[in-house]
Amino acid sequence: MSALAALCLHAAASAASCVEPPPDPANTYDAQHTYAKLARDYPSIRIASAALPVDVNRIGGLTYAQQGERCLKLDLYLPLAARADVGMPVVVLVHGGGWRSGFRSEFAPMAVRLAQQGYAAATISYRLSGEAPYPAAIHDARAAVHWVRAHAGQYHLDPQRIALAGGSAGGQIASLAGVTGHLAQFDSGAEEGAVSGAVQAIVNIDGLSDFTTELALKHEDDPAKHPSAAGAWLGGRYAEQPARWNEASPIRHVHPGMPPILFIASAQPRFSAGREAMAAAMAQAGVASRTLVLPGTPHSFWLFDPWLQPTVDATVAFLNQRMPAR
Q1: CATH number of domain containing 44
Q2: What GO molecular function annotation could you give as one example from this UniProt entry (predicted)?
Q3: 191 and 143 in contact (C-beta within 8 Å)?
Q4: What is the per-residue pLDDT for 267?
Q5: How far is it, in rounded angstroms, from Cα 82 to Cα 85?
Q6: What is the pTM of this model?
Q7: Residues 201 and 262: beta-carbon distance below 8 Å
Q8: Domain contains 16
Q9: 16 falls in which pLDDT band (50, 70, 90)?
Q10: Packing angle of the helix pair 136-150, 169-179 (nearest 10 deg)
Q11: 303: which DSSP letter?
Q12: What is the DSSP string of 25-39?
């Protein structure tokens, strides 16, 4: 039996022991629906292709954690030209959708392009706010990191070179899960053995760094929304859950020794509220950060060409300084 066939059988066996929830018709945050909203104002954009090239292998539907009978799945994208003597660095990708919607397939185009640059990439599903509120999504992102590290040998990955990246709500989740890698409170207890959940780098693509800024509260704590996306995830409005809104803000956890962060932001500052202050706090703590603002871009720009490629290029350049692929 080939190694690939064995891996596929392993995935099938894992899938048989638990289930994923049925599709939710209300979950419409994907490239197609977003394109329909943006195409009039951005007529030159195209949905980025997730087609699998000949130099990338995809292993889909791997169970990385289980909550009761609930499967949490990831899709693993592997470069076929990886060196045989060195494990591949890995990027765990967390989709967006306001903490209440979205699909791991959102990041398939970016995963493919990262794999073509020598990085393994894992696109993950996680529990959305309608199923499990904060901090479940943080637990799930951390569990995915645990799984990658625990299965590094099986998939020829490097357990010491793992990054967390995400877009929109996924950017906030990736930042919080990554910057709190030293805090056991954000582990769910469903992790693989005693392996570390820490990562070596973070990429926050147009996600919040501080829920409590005036700009963030204007949109995320809007009393006209019953509730807002953030309020639904955090269990209430800011006045009702101030400690939780603060705890969920990555900026509150800046500390020396945390992973460096690449911030990639759209031209819509509300979505990356707190970014500049967090970069300043990181500098004060002696931690590197880098920021790329893509002018003229809408939110969700990473789903589309021509913006996906500069997003990938910036990510690869950043990661190559910390966990190079080749």
Answers
A1: 3.40.50.1820
A2: hydrolase activity
A3: yes
A4: 98
A5: 9
A6: 0.93
A7: yes
A8: no
A9: low
A10: 60
A11: G
A12: TT---SHHHHHHHHT
